């Protein structure tokens, strides 16, 4: 597994557009065209045959794809309702989690939590065989308590350990063992044993699949115990949730947020949100949002000079041109129009300066 850390802007995605079941239309289309093999059992809008309510509760999706050639699609930035595990059995694959970029190789296991933006492909998927499992543990934020389904039968000690590692460590990619690889292979074969009628799931080897998923989690426990995992309790506290939200605001600034909506998004009370936001930024949540909007507006004023000042203000989430101008002058001590004119004048002067030729 090779990892390259790059500092890029946060993907510009509305949280509510990406925190949902990804229908993966491009993957489905490729499967329907015979460009790859895909087998999956799923709920909601995830691709695959629909699981009934009585079978494997909390499983959002479980399956695999087998692409024998490079594809012309990828899975864009998204989050999932649940905890997602993917395992690359063969081939290679580009994988990104927020600002971390990886070149996956066979034997790599990825783990993403519901609050982590991630994508597969850069931008397209290469020839590869990938298994996945998405399981809902009842959380969307780091500080919330996890609830596993009762058919997971690991000992209380192992479940506590597994949950602790997954909550207090956000390492995205792990090198695995042959035993874990065999688990995914057996799960894939088990899914293939499912019977369908006119593309409708009528029977799956339920008990067998249940046992195999439990075996998979047991192997993940062993992987963690042998990996000398570094834990960080700060990843599970309210402050961590607010940090993630404030980072998200930098790409969702145009939304007309209220303090109540911000608090609801974080799963916190308005007083708690304000306290943690002040601790991190020394600003209230609304004032921090205004600061982000103004920083973006200042950049757009010089990058998009064909756009009017008023239009840029609206695009950055301000409700009126006058409100934008007043807030901008308070922050930058000049009007938006003068800010743009001053920037243009300075850059024209630089162009006129004589260049030293060595």
Short description:
The protein contains twelve helices and 14 strands.
Description:
Strand 13 and strand 14 form a beta hairpin. Helix 3 packs across helix 5 and helix 4 packs antiparallel against helix 5 (206-225). The longest helix has 20 residues, at 206-225. Residues 1-13 have low confidence and may be disordered. The radius of gyration is 24 Å and the shape is globular. Strands 3-2-4-11-6-9-12 form a 7-stranded mixed sheet, with helices on both faces. The protein contains 12 helices and 14 strands. It is α+β, with helices and mostly antiparallel strands and 358 residues long. It has helices spanning 15-18, 25-32, 156-168, 178-192, 206-225, 238-249, 259-266, 270-281, 285-303, 309-315, 321-332, 336-352; strands spanning 2-5, 37-42, 49-50, 59-67, 75-78, 83-91, 93-97, 100-104, 108-112, 118-120, 128-135, 173-175, 195-197, 200-203.
């Amino acid at each position: 597994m090779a990892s390259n850390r790059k500092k890029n802007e946060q993907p510009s995605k509305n949280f509510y557009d990406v925190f949902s079941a990804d229908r993966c239309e491009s993957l489905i289309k490729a499967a329907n065209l015979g460009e790859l093999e895909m087998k999956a059992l799923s709920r909601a809008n995830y691709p695959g045959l629909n699981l009934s309510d009585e079978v494997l509760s909390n499983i959002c999706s479980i399956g695999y794809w087998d692409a024998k050639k490079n594809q012309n699609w990828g899975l864009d930035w998204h989050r999932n309702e649940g905890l997602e595990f993917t395992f690359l059995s063969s081939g290679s694959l580009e994988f990104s989690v927020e600002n971390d970029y990886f070149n996956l190789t066979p034997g790599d296991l990825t783990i993403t939590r519901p609050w982590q933006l991630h994508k597969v492909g850069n931008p397209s998927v290469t020839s590869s065989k990938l298994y996945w499992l998405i399981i809902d543990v009842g959380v969307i934020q780091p500080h919330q308590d996890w609830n596993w389904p009762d058919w997971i039968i690991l000992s209380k000690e192992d479940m506590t350990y597994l949950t602790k590692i997954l909550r207090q460590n956000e390492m995205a990619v792990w090198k695995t063992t042959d035993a874990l690889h065999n688990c995914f292979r057996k799960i894939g074969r088990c899914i293939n044993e499912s019977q369908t009628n006119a593309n409708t799931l009528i029977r799956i080897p339920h008990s067998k699949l249940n046992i195999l998923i439990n075996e998979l989690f047991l192997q993940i426990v062993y992987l963690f115990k042998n990996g000398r995992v570094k834990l960080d309790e700060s990843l599970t506290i309210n402050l961590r949730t607010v940090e993630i939200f404030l980072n998200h605001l930098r790409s969702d600034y145009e939304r007309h947020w209220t303090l109540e909506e911000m608090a609801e998004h974080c799963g916190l009370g308005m007083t708690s949100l304000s306290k943690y936001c002040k601790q991190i930024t020394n600003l209230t949540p609304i004032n921090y949002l205004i600061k982000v909007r103004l920083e973006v507006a200042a950049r757009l004023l010089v990058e998009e000079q064909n756009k009017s000042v008023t239009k840029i203000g609206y695009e950055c989430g301000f409700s009126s041109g006058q409100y934008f101008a007043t807030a901008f002058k308070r922050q930058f001590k000049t009007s938006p129009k003068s800010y743009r004119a001053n920037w243009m004048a300075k850059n024209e002067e630089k162009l006129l300066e004589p260049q030293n030729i060595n």
